[in-house]
Amino acid sequence: ETSEQAKKDFLKTRYYKTNILLIMEYLKKYFEDSKIKIVSYDTNYNEISVEAELYNMTVRFVQVEAQEAAVDVFVDSYFLFDFNKTKKLINDFYDMLGKKFELKGLALHKEN
Q1: Side-chain half-sphere of 104: how many Cα atoms within 13 Å?
Q2: Are the CB atoms for 22 and 11 separated by under 8 Å?
C-alpha cells in the first residue's frame, strides 16, 4: 500500500493539482473502459474499490486544498510469483493518472 511514510518513492502518496471528484470520475470511466469490475464507488468515503483477475485494488482520495488531491493505493495481489508485478501495477496506475492530472509531488505532508 502507498502512504506518506513509505520509504520507497513508488509507495509514497501522490498529490495532484485537481480535485478528487474529477479524479474519481476519470478513474470510474477508466475502470469501466478497461472492463475492470468496480465493487464500490463511494463519494462519502472518497474511495473506489475494484476487482481484476489477479488483484483487488482500493484507491483512496483526500482533498487537501481546493486544487490538491492526495491519492493512495491499496493492492491485494494473487500473483503466484510476484516478481515485482505489484510494484509495476502501482507504478502503471500512477503513470496513468500522471498523464491526465498534473503531479504536485510525493508525500508532501509527511510528518517527521
Answers
A1: 17
A2: no
On whether the CB atoms of residues 62 and 56 are closer than 8 A, the answer is no
**Is the pLDDT higher at 1 or at 32?**
32
Long-range contacts of 65-69 (CB under 8 A, 24+ apart): 66/19, 67/17, 67/18, 67/19, 68/15, 68/16, 68/17, 68/104, 68/108, 69/15, 69/16, 69/18, 69/19, 69/20, 69/23, 69/101
User: Which of 43 and 84 is assigned the larger pLDDT?
Assistant: 43
Catalogue all structural domains in the chain, each as residue range(s) with its CATH number.
9-102 (3.30.310.80)
pLDDT per residue over 13-62, tens digit each?
A: 999 999 999 999 999 999 999 999 999 999 999 999 999 988 999 999 99
In 8-109, beta strands by DSSP E: 14-16, 37-42, 47-51, 55-65, 68-77, 103-106
